[in-house]
Amino acid sequence: GEPTGPLVKTAIPGPRSLAMLSEMKKIQISDAVQLFADYSKSIGNYLYDVDGNILLDVYTQISSIPLGYNHPELLDVLQDKENIRTFINRPALGVFPGENYPQRVQNSLLRIAPKGHTEVTTMACGSCSNENAYKAIFVWYRRKQRGDKSYTPEEETSCVMNQLPGVSDLTLLSFKGAFHGRTFGTLITTHTKPVHKLDIPTKDWPIGTFPRYKYPLEEFVRENEEEDRRCLAEVEELFDRYNKRGKTVAGVVIEPIQSEGGDHHASPAFFQELQRIAKKNGAALLIDEVQTGGGTTGEFWCHDHFNLDHPVDIVTYSKKMLIGGYFSLPEFRPREGYRIFNTWMGEPSKVILLEKVVEIIKRDKLIENVRVTGDVLLNGLKDFGKRYPNVVKNVRGRGTFCAFDCVSMAKRDQLVEQLKVEGIQSGGAGPVAVRLRPSLVFQPHHASIFLDRLEKALKKM
Amino acid sequence: GEPTGPLVKTAIPGPRSLAMLSEMKKIQISDAVQLFADYSKSIGNYLYDVDGNILLDVYTQISSIPLGYNHPELLDVLQDKENIRTFINRPALGVFPGENYPQRVQNSLLRIAPKGHTEVTTMACGSCSNENAYKAIFVWYRRKQRGDKSYTPEEETSCVMNQLPGVSDLTLLSFKGAFHGRTFGTLITTHTKPVHKLDIPTKDWPIGTFPRYKYPLEEFVRENEEEDRRCLAEVEELFDRYNKRGKTVAGVVIEPIQSEGGDHHASPAFFQELQRIAKKNGAALLIDEVQTGGGTTGEFWCHDHFNLDHPVDIVTYSKKMLIGGYFSLPEFRPREGYRIFNTWMGEPSKVILLEKVVEIIKRDKLIENVRVTGDVLLNGLKDFGKRYPNVVKNVRGRGTFCAFDCVSMAKRDQLVEQLKVEGIQSGGAGPVAVRLRPSLVFQPHHASIFLDRLEKALKKM
Ligand code: FES
């Protein structure tokens, strides 16, 4: 079982982590390594490192561990002799799926499909989920333009050489501060930090402004509504401008909460209106739930909070879902095989694990746990916002997906370090935010330990 | 153990496969599905389907099964209680690697590093391997241009908005018929079939001609040398043309054998001279060994056959290697963390499996097995080329990585179907080729069974 609390014995990284790090540096750049973990000992919400430190983990591998470490029922999945075979016989899933694979997809992904969705395509990570969803949008858009006509011979020969009319000049509209991945297509729509983008050839696609609210929300209702209006007007203007230039906007790509960019929220009204603008322009709306999906916001999908007029055209997922992929409305299904394809198309062993994860989320009412724990967390943070107003600013969150800002990047980094000294593994987001991304089994008593340690850290700032 | 030979009881796909396929079609496009496999029963070189058919598999999940199905020693890896934990605690590997991870990379990937290589970056599939290798090339090239100067504030702000000078106009030179992946960056360099590229916005990067040889090679020495010269002159011309237009060519991307494009080979002399041209132009050479790597050509890396002057700058891998990634010379290591990064950065559980795969390849001398078996296979095919010249054309191969052409796509597809009736799972490549991609445990007696069944199929054509 879990320990009763964190335990810090050494500096972090400690001497054993440092020794392994120096080995790692011989092999590859390792500047992002924070510590070497002991995944045999790590349990539940506690991350053990190789120096015997025990950290309460509110970051969970960049939000990708749904049920904490070494969940006994996930270990049991690998005790099953039949299941084990799935882990060593990875198929080309789009060509030779295994027995009952459709049933397994029903029991896992489709069991938690977003509202209005009955179709799902599996991929292996967040980047290829978005890359392929982008492709599905372009294919859908051009099919609408072409009507029932087939490709011309000229289109077929020109596309192979990257030439019009076979390839297109279509674009996707993304937002400042957005993060959708680091592969070339997704990178065009990612606008967080220079380190992701410097030197890489990209393309000129429209970039809107994601609202930046003033907090606390209840004090700045008028200002924030005005911010929504300003950002939405800009989106309309970008549609006009790019469509006129022949760089037709085929879709809008957006996170329900800008996560890597610094946990920026936008109102349900903003998303409702954005969906209307996309529809009016014949463009698809893609909501990227790679970081927000899986229950951590107190709904299985964050956009469930938005009360949208229509189902979202495409919803991408990964991280806590263990694999990647996207849900899409039937009209986004390509008409030909191999339009959306790759060798592995996800991985059945992850679907087996996800099947169990979904079962546990439902059975143990973990979404409700997130709501209850999220209240403890957010109220605690709001209280700190009042008592330590020079360190804790703009407290915000949905479920346990919470964040606050520091006055500067230096102060934020200092706080994240100090939290580690107090036994808390957290993480930054954007230039000045601290983000919380605990697992779904993070309970109110964990939140209390976290708040207690956070206060200790705040007192030392 | 393995059965003594194939056994076909039903049409393929059989009734149970068809029933599952109709379930699958409700969920997603499934036009590429050939059959539903029984991965519990599949063993060694034999793929069992859900209808009780047993196929000798010379395609191995698009060349991605190194040791055949259900290798007992890989199953044993999952009997180990410590190992199992690695399968359910997937870390953000670039931030929180597990205990002894550098040692595991030494025992697996670095144990089979290409000549001159001591550094490796892990990724999760062939596409992100190439995407990130491309990024490493652009970063390296711009650093050479910048010298020791850091980025300007203008570069930092402009890149986030996809604008020069922060992003670049650099290009990579690829080849007609090349396949490097289907994500946006790799798709720019993929030139196989329209179905991969139609409607997707790409970029105008230089595209050279990969040699197309006349067979048998010994009869067309002069013609094929002339073909090499023509293609290499075109590469030089493309460098000049694109560099002059400000679309500077930062690197050349090439497969050692164009695989998806139809198993096109080029001579060692061609690759040697290509490396010289790249060096002369200050451009990197990336050899994409995603399909050719892992021993299947009779060397661990196909480019080992080429006797190059220098180590290759970057070598990408995936498929048989179970994970993806790239080996790169030290100068391609970025100077800042997070330049090459994503949440998962590969997967330690795959590295554990790969460690065992590499151990078995060495211990069981499987590369030598590939050479011996490859001789049986290639000689048999060459014999058919003489005896069935209207069906089996242009026989070629290295190791068991063999192929031949049919007179048309229709005839090729017909032969692949007929082979299935005879109990052989093979696959097409490009417009008219049949490709063989058996596992590394495919032995001479398997090759004999294959040749026997192929001849039966040929007689019915
Ligand atoms: S791009 Fe997603 S796993 Fe490679």
UniProtKB/TrEMBL annotation, chains A, B:
EC numbers for this chain: 2.6.1.19, 2.6.1.22
Protein name: (S)-3-amino-2-methylpropionate transaminase
GO cellular component, as recorded: mitochondrion
Gene Ontology biological process terms, A to Z: gamma-aminobutyric acid catabolic process
Cofactor: pyridoxal 5'-phosphate
Heme in keyword set: no
Source organism of the structure: Daphnia sinensis
NCBIfam families in alphabetical order: GABAtrns_euk (TIGR00699)
Keyword line: Aminotransferase, Pyridoxal phosphate, Transferase
Family statement drawn from the similarity comment of this UniProt entry: Belongs to the class-III pyridoxal-phosphate-dependent aminotransferase family.
Molecular-function annotations in GO: (S)-3-amino-2-methylpropionate transaminase activity; 4-aminobutyrate:2-oxoglutarate transaminase activity; pyridoxal phosphate binding
